[in-house]
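User: Fold this one for me? It's MFS transporter.
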Amino acid sequence: MTSSYRSIAILLIVTGTFVASNIYTLIPIYDLLTDELTTTTSMIALGSTSFTLCYAIGLLLFGTMSDVVGRKPILVLGMLLFSITSLCVSFADSDFSMIVTRGLQGFAGGSFAPVAFAYTFDLYNGKFRALILSMINTGFLVAGILGQIISASIATNHGWEYVFYFYFVIYLLLFLLSAKFLPQNKSKTNTSFKPLQSIKLFSSFLQSKNLLLCYIITFSLLLTPISFYDALNQYLLPISSAEDLFFIRTVALLGTILSIFGGAINAKYGLKGSFYIGIALLIGSLIPMILIPDFYVILYSAIFLVSSISILIPTIIAIIGTIEQKSRGSAIALYSFTLLIGASFGSLLTSILPFQGVLLFLLLYGIINIFLMRKISYSR
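Assistant: Here's what I get for MFS transporter.
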C-alpha cells in the first residue's frame, strides 16, 4: 500500500465527515432562522426534510450513474455541485427559498456516500478496505455532533449565512483535492445510463434473497441510533438538562474507536462473525437500559450502542459489495437509500412508543437480524 493510496483514504474519510455534517446544520439554529426569515420553526424544519428527501434521491441516482461513467467523475463533479448549492443556501431570504436551496444541496450531497463506498471496493482490498469503510462510517457518526457544533458556533458569532459560506469554501477545497488526487478507476459496468434500466436493476436486487435480507437488516442500522437519541431527548429533558443530553452524545462517540479495529475483526472472525459481534454489543447495550433506565447506565450503554453501529454498518456494506460485484455502485446506492429511509422512521417510532418501548423494539429487531444473517450466503 503506497502513501498516495493512504492519502486518498484520508481524503475520502474527511470528505465523508463534512458531507454528513451538513445533514445536521439547521438543528441548532432553528430559532435563529425563524427570527431572521420571519417564519415558523416548522417551516424551517421543512428545510431539513427537503434536504433529506433530495439526498435520498441523489443517493440512488448518483450511485447508479457511477457504474456508467466511473466513480471519480461523480465524486469530483458532485463535490463541485455541493459547493455551489451550499453557497446558494446562504442567499435564502424566505422559508420557501430555504426549502428549495436545501433540497438542491441535499441532492448534490447524495453524490458522495454510495459512490465513495463503491470506490473503496474498487481501490482497496482486505483489512485496509474494511478499515476505510469503517472510518468513513465513523465520520458519518461523528458528523452528528460536529455538524451541530460548527453550525452553532459560526451562526452565534457571525450569522447563519456564514455557516454556508464556510461549507462552500470547504467543499470547494475538497473538490480541488479530489480532482487532483483521486485516481481514475476501471469500474464502468454499463455503457449508458437509462432510468428504466436502473429501476429494473433495483428490482432485481430486491428479488435476490441475499440482498433483500441485507436491506431488511440495513433498515434498522441508522434507525437504531436516531430513534435512541430522539427517545432519550423525550425521556431525559423533563428531568435533566440539554447539557446532559449533549454530554451523553459526546461521550458515546468513544464507541466509534472500535471502528479502527474493523479490519482486524473482519480478518479474524469474517464478515458474519463481525456482524454477530456488532449485534452482541447492541443487545448488551439495550438490555441494561431497559432494566435500569438511569442516567449513568444510559451513559455507559450509549458507548456500546455506538460501538455496535460502528461495526454493523461497514460490515453490511462489505457483505452487499461482496454479493453484488457487477453493479456494486447501484447495490450500495440502494443500501444508502434504505439506510436513510430507516433513519426517517426514527421520529415516527418515538412518537408512538415511550423510551423503554423504543429500546425493546430495537432489541427485538436486533434479535431478528441474527436469524436474517444466518440465511444470507455469499462467496468469500
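One thing worth pointing out: Residues 126-158 form the longest helix (33 residues).
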